[in-house]
Design a protein that fits this description.
By secondary structure, this protein is an alpha/beta fold. About 45% of the residues lie in helices and about 15% in strands.
């Protein structure tokens, strides 16, 4: 068997956001958010598109969005490319999801918590080696919680997970292993067969269950990701080389920024006839204004 890569947006949405995915998503969220405890008993998978009620706010595109039985919303994003200002984008989408719950005249008591679960195929926090990081509002010095946890940010950094099959102990271990290694497996590992939801995820991820159009779409997205990773990597290398030539710390930083921006602009130009401004902005890290300026050149 061959399994599709759950780190692509197409595969992630198919595995966790399709009509048959409800039990899979419940198990996955319990593992990622609640240490494998069966805290979530039910949820509703909803449209992940965040259309803004305020005209000047950005629209947002997430991979999967769910409303839990208690009313809290979970927004889930799988990010492969480490684009510029990605950390700010996570905060923005979370804050917008929280703030746009109300319409004019509704009381603040109607607000429900929002949890942003972000899985990255790159390292977000270089100063920490834990795979999962969980952020909430706390008092800065005495570290007590701000009333109720209305907004939570959870990050899963796949490159930091190095456990092998025989080392998988918890439900969390097994789901992170699935996310990182599914494409390299040929059968469902025995250590993961005991979790029915993971078995279901493998069944959806089995390439034989995809139609030709879905396979073509998946292959195109995987090629695109590989191409962009190569371009961004080249931009970083060129930026560093320029910085070294200048021989000063400020020169290195400026060279890196310049190289990455030029490559981002190059990518954006290639996408102008394919994607809308917002999607290009999210892909490249450039502003929507930058993209519009490119269209007007």
């Amino acid at each position: 068997m061959r399994f599709i890569n759950p780190k692509t947006d197409f595969a992630f949405k198919k595995i966790f956001g399709s009509n048959q995915s409800k039990p899979i998503l419940i198990s996955f969220l319990n593992a990622m958010i609640y240490d494998g405890n069966p805290t979530i008993a039910d949820l509703e998978i909803i449209d992940p598109y965040l259309a803004s009620r305020v005209q000047y706010l950005k629209d947002s595109y997430l991979d999967v969005k769910a409303r839990l039985a208690g009313g809290a919303t979970v927004i889930i994003e799988m990010q492969v490319l480490n684009v510029e200002s990605f950390a700010k984008r996570v905060v923005y989408n979370t804050a917008k999801t929280y703030s746009t719950q109300l319409i004019r005249g509704e009381g603040y008591f109607k607000l429900k918590p929002v949890i942003a679960l972000t899985i990255t195929d790159f390292e977000m926090f270089d100063n920490d080696r834990e795979v999962i990081s969980h952020f909430v509002f706390k008092e800065k010095k005495r570290l007590f919680d701000y009333v109720d946890p209305e907004i939570e940010l959870i990050f899963i950094e796949l490159p930091k997970f190095n456990k092998q099959l025989d080392e998988l102990e918890t439900l969390t271990d097994k789901w992170v292993y699935f996310m990182k290694n599914a494409p390299s497996l040929e059968v469902v590992p025995e250590t993961m067969e005991t979790v029915s939801e993971i078995q279901q995820a493998f069944a959806i991820a089995n390439e034989t269950n995809l139609n030709p159009e879905e396979l073509a779409d998946l292959e195109a997205r995987e090629r695109y990701i590989l191409d962009q990773q190569g371009i961004l990597r080249k931009g970083i290398e060129e930026g560093l080389a320029q910085g070294r030539e200048e021989g000063r710390e400020e020169g290195r930083e400026e060279g890196l920024a310049l190289g990455m921006r030029e490559k981002a602009l190059e990518i954006a130009r290639q996408l102008l006839n394919v994607l809308d401004n917002q999607t290009i902005s999210q892909t490249t890290g450039l502003s929507v204004e930058d993209i519009q300026n490119l269209r007007e050149e």
